[in-house]
Amino acid sequence: MNKTTNQKAWFLVLPVLLLVAFSAVIPLMTVVNYSVQDTFGQNEFFWAGLEWFEEMLRSERMWDALGRQLLFSGIILLIEIPLGVFVALNMPKSGFWSSFCLVVMSLPLLIPWNVVGTIWQIFGRVDIGLLGYTLDALGISYNYTQDVFAAWATIIVMDVWHWTSLVALLAFAGLKSIPDAYYQAAKIDQASRWAVFRYIELPKMMGVLMIAILLRFMDSFMIYTEPFVVTGGGPGNATTLLSIDLVKMALGQFDLGPAAAFSLMYNLVILTMAYVFYTVMTTLEKREG
Amino acid sequence: MAKITLDNLAHSYLAKPASEDDFALKQLDHVWADGEAYALLGSSGCGKSTLLNIISGLLHPSQGRILFDDKDVTAATTADRNIAQVFQFPVVYDTMTVRDNLAFPLRNRGESAAYVAERVQAIARMIGMEDQLSKRARGLTADAKQKISLGRGMVREDVNALLFDEPLTVIDPHMKWELRTQLKSLHHEFGHTMIYVTHDQTEALTFADKVVVMYDGRVVQIGTPEDLFETPAHTFVGYFIGSPGMNVIPAEVQGTRAVVQGHDVSLTRGFGTPSGKVEIGVRPEFVTLTAGAGLPVTIRRVEDVGRHKIVRASLFGADLNIVVGEGVEIGADMTNVTFAPAKVGVYVDDWRQTGEAA
């Protein structure tokens, strides 16, 4: 076969190259650029080497934020995954009510992040919010602007409210793919409800659940808008998660160098975590299989 | 093991069935004798799986009762009926090993570990999977999985009946033969009542003592393979059993004589003068090509299938199949056919007429 040589074909990839360059490569390189330089304004930059990285690694502030972030992601995964599966298991499998449930469950997913934040910010207010006012009237001390526990409870409940639906919808899709014959065979084998869940439903849901866990982990690890709108990272620094801290540093204090070093490490952490998650879960699945 | 009685049974998937057409399973009374092997034969959508699911209790019938040994079990759950059922597509518990899969029904019923181990071993030997007992079920091939499903169905010794819903669809042809033979020997050994649903006539005829043929939600004939071949009670049975199926020819019948487009066909019994849709049915095996006598046909094609030849012909524009012995020469003068009079059946509105001795 004769291959014709035509170097002009390179032009065909040019649009993609440009798009990727402007949407990803150049912004990222700007961050890399900031991370190794220092500036005192006036667009004058001085070479700083790895100083910012070293400083960030020594910074208690970043480690605290990372700790809070891990705690937050851990808690919401522990709640949302089982709760989502539980909801999916109890949803009607077909008919009008099934569609109804699906629509109602999708509603929180359609609300923009900062609106969700605003909803809960107002909902929790002690003076005018339904939740805050009611709790207060019942004599339960609740004030997310002053009490660390209340602030954490609020952002966790908010995240559960916003995202459990996603887990439930994915789990429901997994459940729907199970042929009736499995349930019939289980009945004939006299399997208990638990055995049906453990040996039929859970294995068939594993694939989508892994996606759900991965998605929820990454999204929660990068969460910014909702907690920022509700608590602004407070009281004190109690709910200052990684993104919130990063924005404070970059835009609030205009410490571009440290913030850039911070975001690069943040990025690496997320990549590493996602990779570890993925590897662990796929090997788990292989061992199951 | 039990005798299973279907009393006035019918089922519709609609909440309020208005006419008979709404019923997936039309009204039916039947007794499945204890310890017999039945095949439930019919084309897709004829209601055979519906009937099976009603017997196993997965489906609640719209009307009628089911009795196991004269005990009404219509309202009983599948577990209470103590039935084993094997489905068309393999159902295995993916995360369990083959051993755990086979042991599952026994463990759920609280059998002792020693008994479970012994039964699992015996069943594994039967399905030829002794060396794969510790493997996970997930990675196995479809036919290995189906063998596990079969094994799980047979692992309990005390079941009232064993139901099979086209279990060999996904299995390799040579394995099909082997498993069917094993099922049959299992039946001889333990005498379970077995009901085997299939749309494959060979499978039905080789497996069962009695074949139940269903058509359009109705049982049209119950009989031995020989009955179905010799005296099909319904034109569907004639057409469905046999390869090729029975020839059905519109005719007028007067007493012991049928008239096809002005040509006489003699019958051995008297049928009076039936009205409605009158047809005569004759199997291709009992049609003879002749060089003069009988009805005129046009031969369109001859298929040599080895043991015999199948002649595809047309008779007054309708298809007619003829089975001709391997040694017979089919010459250009073979333009007519005769029917063996004793083998010609008369069908009125698709149902076979018994007639009177002439």
UniProtKB/TrEMBL annotation, chain A:
GO CC annotation terms, alphabetical: plasma membrane
Primary site of residence: membrane
InterPro entries according to UniProt: MetI-like, MetI-like_sf, Sugar_ABC_transporter
Species per Swiss-Prot/TrEMBL record: Jannaschia pohangensis
Membrane topology: Multi-pass membrane protein
Gene3D superfamilies the record matches: MetI-like
PANTHER family noted in UniProt: GLUCOSE IMPORT SYSTEM PERMEASE PROTEIN GLCT (PTHR43759:SF1), TREHALOSE TRANSPORT SYSTEM PERMEASE PROTEIN SUGA (PTHR43759)
Subcellular location: Cell membrane
CDD domains, per the entry: TM_PBP2
Protein family according to the UniProt entry: Belongs to the binding-protein-dependent transport system permease family.
Domain ABC transmembrane type-1: 66-277
One family name in Pfam for this protein: BPD_transp_1
Record-given protein name: Carbohydrate ABC transporter membrane protein 1, CUT1 family
GO process annotations (BP): transmembrane transport
Transmembrane spans: 70-89, 96-123, 149-175, 196-218, 259-278
UniProtKB keywords: Membrane, Transmembrane, Transmembrane helix, Transport
Keyword Transport: yes
From TrEMBL, chain B:
UniProt keyword terms in alphabetical order: ATP-binding, Cell membrane, Membrane, Nucleotide-binding, Transport
Entry GO MF terms: ABC-type ferric iron transporter activity; ATP binding; ATP hydrolysis activity
PANTHER family, per the entry: ABC TRANSPORTER ATP-BINDING PROTEIN, MALTODEXTRIN IMPORT ATP-BINDING PROTEIN MSMX
The keyword tRNA processing belongs to this UniProt entry's keyword annotation: no
Protein name per UniProt: Carbohydrate ABC transporter ATP-binding protein, CUT1 family
InterPro entries, per the entry: AAA+_ATPase, ABC_transporter-like_ATP-bd, ABC_transpr_FbpC, ABC_transpr_MalK/UgpC-like, Mo/tungstate-bd_C_term_dom, OB_MalK-like, P-loop_NTPase
Domain ABC transporter: residue ranges: 4-241
UniProt key word ATP-binding: yes
UniProt family annotation: Belongs to the ABC transporter superfamily.
Superkingdom: Bacteria
GO CC term, one of those recorded: ATP-binding cassette (ABC) transporter complex, substrate-binding subunit-containing
Pfam families in alphabetical order: ABC_tran, OB_MalK
